Amino acid sequence: MRKAMSNAPKVAVGAAAAAGAVAAGLAGRALWRHRRPAGGDRAWGPPPQDLGPIEAFDGTELAVRAAGPPDGSILLFSHGFSLDMTTWREQWSDLADEFRCIALDHRAHGRSEVPATGDVSLRSMGRDLATVLDAVAPDRRVVLIGHSMGAMAILALAEQRPDLFGPRIGGVVFLGASASDLLRGAMGGVTDLLRPRLGSLATAARRVDRLRRAILAGPAEVPAIVARVTQFAPDAPDDVVDHVLHLAELTTSLVWTDGLSELMRMDFRHALARLTVPALVAVGDQDRVTPPAVAVELAAALPDGRLFLVEGAGHIAMLERPERLNPELRSFAREALSLGSDRGRKRQGTRKNGAA
To answer: In terms of CB atoms within 10 Å, which end of the chain has fewer, N or C?
Structure first.
């Protein structure tokens, strides 16, 4: 399958970031206080095998866990902003029958440490991915799968370590990845809240965090439709919405201030040409954070990009429609790592739910 739009202009891969939880975090517990807290039961647990902690370049301890056969081909999962590795639950539980599924919590997220220096930059997250690769797959090829901020971390890795792509990294999946920067308007109505009319991006991010904490502490119930309209397709499962809000509530303010301002200003367009391996750009057809048109541009800008639309999904497609996303991930990983009979699959046009 050829790139979806070979003549499309090259684009920046800006802050895919605030994605999974900016608006969700704004709603936070106030939206769902009548529901049980998500993440506290086995259903939202991490992959079963503990591979960590793995020490990053600056001493930060990273939580890394795995599922699947130790000798299986490796998929490494990189989660989104204010989320954690549990958001890959539907992928590792399905794909671990064939692949070694490894997931990390990025610095200052989930079970990983908050860096002593306060460094939550995307470039450091990219270095963390390289560290995890060296620790878990020093002599094996992998497929990297990144959602939102996690996709940006992969681009940061490509900027710093282009030598890894090909010999060590056989393919890349970008899920809910944004083109251009956060202020371009990819986040729809939330953009007006984030746009700094006065002051810096850091000031804007601090405003968002103050609002998030105020709503979390407030007594009023806010209609659940707020979270659904901003992040999810209309029929997203209640427990999925609940879990994403719970993760946003738990995330440290450092991520919402320094991390969010970083995401709003970063631009890795120059790194796209270094991603010469096959790249799958997947997006929910109802994603309001990183709409399909943005994904089309990104797929066209990559040297070997292809587009896959996940029907019936918003921005959290891996949890909303895993039954539609997972078969494409499996097929792509097999091809990228030269597995199975579909190695030479002809690539043309745009794929939608696995149909050419």
So the answer is: C
Domain-located, residue 293 = yes
Cα dihedral 222→215→262→178 (10° resolution): 0
Q: What is the total count of domains within the chain? A: 1
**C-alpha R_g of the chain:** 19
pLDDT (tens digit, 9 = 90+) per residue, 255-299?
878 777 777 778 888 999 999 999 999 999 999 888 898 899 999
Phi-psi map region of 340: left, alpha, beta (phi>0 left; psi -120 to 50 alpha): left
Is 11 domain-assigned?
Answer: no
Residue 14 in domain: no
Query: Which of 231, 322, 242, 248 is CA-nearest to residue 41?
Result: 242
**Within 10 A of 157 (CB to CB), how many other CB atoms are there?**
30
3-state secondary structure of 42: helix
Strands 64-67 and 49-50: antiparallel
Helices (H), 96-200: 122-136, 149-160, 190-194
Q: Which residue matches tokens 């007006």?
A: 192
CA distance 199 to 202: 8
Among 115, 111, 127, CA closest to 57: 127
| CATH code of 150's domain | 3.40.50.1820
The reply to whether 238 falls in a domain is yes
Could you say which DSSP state residue 114 is in? P
Q: Which ranges in 49-163 belong to alpha helices (H)?
A: 89-95, 122-136, 149-160
CA dihedral 226, 229, 233, 235 (to 10 degrees): 50
- CB contact at 8 A, 75 and 138: no
From the CB of residue 47, how many other CB atoms can be counted at a distance below 10 Å?
A: 23
The lowest-confidence range among 157-166, 263-272, 336-345 is 336-345
Q: What residues make up the domain containing 284?
A: 19-352
